[in-house]
């Protein structure tokens, strides 16, 4: 098992026009951690996702889709007392997407330490995000338990800060995420998210994290990504692309980054792969639907209008 | 104002195939009381619907759609602290529809007496259903408050028992609905629902209700409807049709029945109109989308294959 | 050239749901005469259709579609001063279709004698319907001119009475259609349409037409068709099918009947083929889209659930 | 009542591909004046639209849609003798849209003074466009009558010149629009349209209009808008956006401008709001479907790829 | 492992209208053996499918879909030298479906003994059909090899005769299928298919098979199924349903039958479950999409118009 | 007859999303030669296409579509022993299209000299491409036979090199295409394709071709096109457009170029028309669907956001 991750995966509804005008929805699944698991599986790594879904059709959709993508869902629990969460997307303007959650009281938000602390996997990496702790106390405890499991099995811990302002305040997020970051090996954040972990410029915050035992801090925005390690700082510019749907870019980036780690790539090559997988995410519709197989990685960078015939 | 009604109206999602296979959804609104209000408005009556919706796009969809159908939504309250409820339909087999609610904690289920007790309308009829009291204590109180308002303004009270087994037990329903029925002028029920109000055959239960002050008890199934009044019992068979989508049949029936009441039709004619509007509901997709305008009532009964050219 | 026909062909819009709710439309073409021409072409006969279309995209759609079906459209005139007509269909109930015309002032309704009187074809049959004369005086004259052309070239004349109550009154129809029928060789009508040509039972009206020189009178309803000729009367029951879309049934019937005539079938076999082609029309969506090729005629009558594998 | 407007609203059909290839249509409504009324209603103003529709389903679509958007349609007249007009759009190239009208003889084009001269509203602004007078003499008279009503009720008059070359010549337009402009308080035009009202550069034409009693002349193109008033000239550049569908841009601009007037904004702020609402129109599909609610105005200008979560 | 099966699975294209008119396609997968595997997996059994697919997207679709349904595809081979086969369905008439194969030279038809003879599974049942041997010599040998493997691992062999007239003649089929049937434990056939195995009435052919060592012969048509065993003959009538799409009925029947075998049901109960699963197949679109989970088996037989709320 | 061409035309399936995720397909036809024939027909020239199709529905789709576009298909042969070929397109990234052929053993690839050597047409130009010879020996011979026919009827020969790396190697292509080019009057190629015909810069290769008897060599890429003739070299830049779908650009270019030749335009004007028709191809979906009629040629170059009203 290369990577184990846990969190909430929801039924994702994408409006085909304005919701208020009665436009319909296409259906998929979404969840930062499950997106990363799919991205890794498509690149040929083995990945498991743990979490709770309802016994409703949406829950079957979640596990069916992850299973289809080769993600190990044997540890998923079905909770007959709560519905699977729903996330709705409406592209209000070409560059502005409105997101609504129907996840309060969802099965996924009932994740608890018992769901993860005895998982039978021996992963090389455990990946968590800052979304799960925002879903409630039992979720917060579950993430802590998962990191404990990682330590006990000598797995590295990867943390994507992933701040969601609709779920909690910056203060609450900072309080919960600081200890998680301190205990992680790899911390991935936007500049704005990194600021949850301290004051000062990114390089100062990163330096403090490295001092505290973190192996690598990755800070990225749409234009470039920077890796801070004990060996120094490396910056790699992103591919210049015309985004089709920017949702999922961060999860694609993380999948590419972790894939690079697993393949033993150096910091620059890891960031390049992260950018490439992120570019696939923004050049295709959906959070994860367009993520690349390994044999597709070199499609980014083909001449314009290329027909593979 | 002919009819005032209140309850929960939700965004309705109809799966275009199996949800678990990732089929999309078409969107509309649903709610027993709002369905009846639309049915009445289409028949030329004036109707208002009261209730709560969220400040989300789904809430705008609800009020926009009711407004489009000419239903007075000036009394609708927007609740910024809870989402608009969602109901999902999946036609599992031609004759079997699976229904899932995402209405726990919804704005609509926060309806409370304050929302209805000072409504400015002077309706001839106030219509309530047995669904609203099943949504929680404040909803139950709101229905009671609405019936009080009806009495104080000399409006007749119409009650559709509408038992929903997924929302509460038969015992709980019986306890809450019995006093409502006792205070109503018109009680509409399936035989199974009527049994919530007492033991024995339908005619005995109806007789007891009439004795207690109810003006008319209507009992209907797919085949026929029967009106019990002090003037006697009348039975009218339903139209023999090949259903396309049986959801909404009951609400259409009620809209036709109340329309007959408002037009001063006699009991048989009322039931005939009820059957006709119900037939429109089952012959078209959606809860209310196919309900007839007044000038369309006679389309039921045209020769097969009729082209109106 | 086996058959020449003329009339108005329109862009046909079929609503995918209630028009008033903003449902979209699928697009095709429609026109009784062009439907017959397509039906004949599919069965392997040569057919030409004459008429006027606008220079708009809808006009191109009409000629493009007829050309696709192998109908000769070399005689079609493009009229830059009027739009191509539009017909809208809304299936209001499974058995009731609402039809609206936007054909007032259309290019097609400007058909005039000059459009048809010098056509270069040498058809075996000229087919006209009672719809064209209803579109205006110049159309009426055009039909008369076409029948004159038929006579002058020794073509048989086939007339489908096709009464459209929305276009004219029974009185106006009767006055215009009587002389057309009197001059035709084959008159096809429903019992109700036949009554435009005289009083009394169908057999009396048919007898008078035969006396006046008509070769064959065909009277059909959904259940059976009857042929009246000097050789006697023959009745053939229709296929018992469960209609999907009854629009176009009559035109399919006529195409099958004329195909039988062209193939030299006897009266009973002609009616059988007419019923078969009509059955294809009602078992498929659209006026003409499902009409059979010759090698498909025997698909009617296969065992239920047949898979051609 | 903030704004009263009148004109023709049609069923709008948008081809999903080339019409001649048989592509289908999505359905909505269109009309410059009704678009403005919707835009105002969405921004929280009260607006009424007057006009004629047929008694057909398309007519119900028009009033249903306007009612859904909160536009007062109580003054709309249904004309049983003519169909509701239809406008078809085909996007021939990304930047080129083909428009076809089926509005000759439409109910909407039968608007007459009697339809508007006794309207019960007390609007602050009456808004008219140069399209309505192009539809025929009775329409021209109706616009004149509406301006008279405005004067008699102390409402300001807003005129969007809106020249439609397919409906009349520049000469005819100039003759009809000059007196309307002279009597208006606010005249809105493109440079090309302004030239209908006189020769010379825009500033000269504007100066002459101001001299004649017009309060403000607004001249706009895709790049900027300029306001000429007695207080001087102000120029505000448009938002730089990548248009999705430029149809409806002008009506959005007018709705924003009138909204600014009603809110008492100064000239620059009015033009800014006009540009913002116009930007919503071009960044979304449809004439009016994407127009903003008041709480959405600041979505223009968010960072790229913003997800409102 | 409960059941192991092997054969060809193809990309299935279902035309949404007449192919010749340019109607589009929906996409799924199809294959008699993979349909059975899905049906078993949905009922809670473990099933593996072996076969070859191309390295093209269609091949990924096949394995992704089977994986999504929980079928073990670890033994599937990807063949980079041939495309995944395609099957096209066009519903020509409500009761007549046209099927076209693009499977000549497909990866699936290159199945060979080496693909199956060393499979690591220990199945209780090995299921094969009469389709695979029709695809070519190497396929025929592969089926033989698979039956040998079954014997060597003490698995029962189930054979669905499944004659496809488009793939081979009755004579060729009879020659190839007779030895397979003789070596099977359970033989399933229509009366017409059973006649491939001998002359005389079904009971005689069945008796000879039982004499030769077959444990059970099941003969079914749309109306009933009959089980012949040493213990006697049992007949169970099919559910009376109104078919939506009869393709896949046989595979559903087999899945239900094998499920009954695995659950240790008696012959009558096995046939009842077979009929029930078959009824799901014909009451839903697609070959396998509507097959039931175990908790859905009792949906067949609910009262008409049942809403599970 | 202006132009005669021959080759393989296939059913074209365009995935509406990722094929592996089960996205559906839209349907059309494709084939370099038939695309050119359609382009010419739309511009008002007469064109015939020769080739083989199956007797399946896809074959009817091919001839029906070409017939609809006015292309003469009277010489098309139906081959009952092989299926019509299929080409699938999946837009993997906005700029990268994946193409898969199901054309091995197709009817179209069985084209042979006998299919073309006695065609009854008297074309001014015979157009062939480098795709057909790549399909097999009989196809190669058929192209040779067609060029012989051209010579014998004094038609000019136009050759579009059109190298398809998936069908053959550069070496095989070079060997087969060199003699074809040497015998052609007009050779059209990309720089890369031209290099199949010799070494050195394009101008050297072109010079050698002109020396050998070729009248004109046209070399084009996305930015510009260059014509080499005995009269000198002319370069015309392409329209600067934002491509929607680059497939079909080359065929549109050729259609425009041949149209210019037929109209007697000079070299620069020919290239301009070629670029214009090519621009239509890349600005619209599909290979040929958006190609212009003659009255549409000037739509390229209209101001942005033009509405033709």
TrEMBL record, chains A, B, C, D, E, F:
<dbReference type="GO" id="GO:0005524">
    <property type="term" value="F:ATP binding"/>
</dbReference>
<protein>
    <submittedName>
        <fullName>Sugar kinase</fullName>
    </submittedName>
</protein>
<dbReference type="InterPro" id="IPR011611">
    <property type="entry name" value="PfkB_dom"/>
</dbReference>
<keyword id="KW-0808">Transferase</keyword>
<dbReference type="InterPro" id="IPR050306">
    <property type="entry name" value="PfkB_Carbo_kinase"/>
</dbReference>
<feature type="domain" description="Carbohydrate kinase PfkB">
    <location>
        <begin position="4"/>
        <end position="291"/>
    </location>
</feature>
<dbReference type="InterPro" id="IPR002173">
    <property type="entry name" value="Carboh/pur_kinase_PfkB_CS"/>
</dbReference>
<comment type="similarity">
    <text>Belongs to the carbohydrate kinase PfkB family.</text>
</comment>
<keyword id="KW-0547">Nucleotide-binding</keyword>
<dbReference type="GO" id="GO:0016301">
    <property type="term" value="F:kinase activity"/>
</dbReference>
<dbReference type="Pfam" id="PF00294">
    <property type="entry name" value="PfkB"/>
</dbReference>
<keyword id="KW-0067">ATP-binding</keyword>
<dbReference type="InterPro" id="IPR029056">
    <property type="entry name" value="Ribokinase-like"/>
</dbReference>
<keyword id="KW-0418">Kinase</keyword>
């Amino acid at each position: 098992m290369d990577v184990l991750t846990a969190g909430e995966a929801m039924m994702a509804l994408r409006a085909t026009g304005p919701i208020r005008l009665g436009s319909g929805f296409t259906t998929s699944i979404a969840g930062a951690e499950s997106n990363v698991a799919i991205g890794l599986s498509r690149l040929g790594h083995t990945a498991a996702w743990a979490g709770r879904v309802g016994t409703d059709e949406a829950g079957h959709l979640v596990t069916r889709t992850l299973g289809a993508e080769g993600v190990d869902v044997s540890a998923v629990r079905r909770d007959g007392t709560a519905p699977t969460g729903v996330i709705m997307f409406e592209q209000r303007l070409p560059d502005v997407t409105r997101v609504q959650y129907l996840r309060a009281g969802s099965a996924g938000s009932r994740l608890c330490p018992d769901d993860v602390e005895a998982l039978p996997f021996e992963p090389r990496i455990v990946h968590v995000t800052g979304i799960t702790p925002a879903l409630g106390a039992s979720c917060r405890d579950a993430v802590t338990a998962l990191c404990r499991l990682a330590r006990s099995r000598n797995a590295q811990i990867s943390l994507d800060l992933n701040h969601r302002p609709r779920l909690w305040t910056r203060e609450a997020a900072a309080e919960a995420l600081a200890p998680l970051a301190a205990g992680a090996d790899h911390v991935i954040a936007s500049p704005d998210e990194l600021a949850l972990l301290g004051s000062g410029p990114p390089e100062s915050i990163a330096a403090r994290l490295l001092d505290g035992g973190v192996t690598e801090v990755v800070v990225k925005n749409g234009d470039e990504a920077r890796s801070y390690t004990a060996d120094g700082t490396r910056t790699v510019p992103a591919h210049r692309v015309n985004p089709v749907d920017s949702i999922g870019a961060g999860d694609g980036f993380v999948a590419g980054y972790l894939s690079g780690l697993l393949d033993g790539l150096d910091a620059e090559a890891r960031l390049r792969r992260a950018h490439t997988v992120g570019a696939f995410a923004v050049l295709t519709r959906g959070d994860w639907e367009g993520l690349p197989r390994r044999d597709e990685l070199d499609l980014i960078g083909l001449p314009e209008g290329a027909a593979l015939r």
